[in-house]
């Protein structure tokens, strides 16, 4: 009986971890959408341009 209670507790903890991971991913995704949606075009271009340089990707 102690084994089934322990297993049940681990299953609940895993479900809680999954739920929190999904919630964090959703908040980060929505944050990126809203930041990109309300940022001026020049800011987005400069950010993408700088990222290309940090990855040694030719952009000129």
Structure description:
This protein has a domain at 23-60. It has helices at 2-38, 41-54. The chain has 2 helices and no strands. The model has no long low-confidence stretch (mean pLDDT 80). The chain is 85% helix and 0% strand. It is mostly helical and 60 residues long. It comes from Methylobacterium jeotgali. This is Cobalt transporter. The chain crosses the membrane at residues 20-44. Keywords: Membrane, Transmembrane, Transmembrane helix.
Compact summary:
Keywords: Membrane, Transmembrane, Transmembrane helix. The chain has 60 residues and is mainly α. It has helices at residues 2-38, 41-54.
Task: Give the topology, please.
Elements: H1 2-38, H2 41-54
């Amino acid at each position: 009986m102690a084994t089934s209670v322990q297993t049940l507790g681990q299953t609940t903890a895993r479900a809680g971890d999954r739920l929190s991971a999904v919630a964090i991913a959703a908040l980060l995704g929505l944050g990126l959408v809203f930041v990109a949606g309300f940022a001026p075009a020049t800011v987005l271009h400069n950010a993408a341009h700088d990222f290309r340089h940090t990855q040694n990707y030719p952009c000129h």
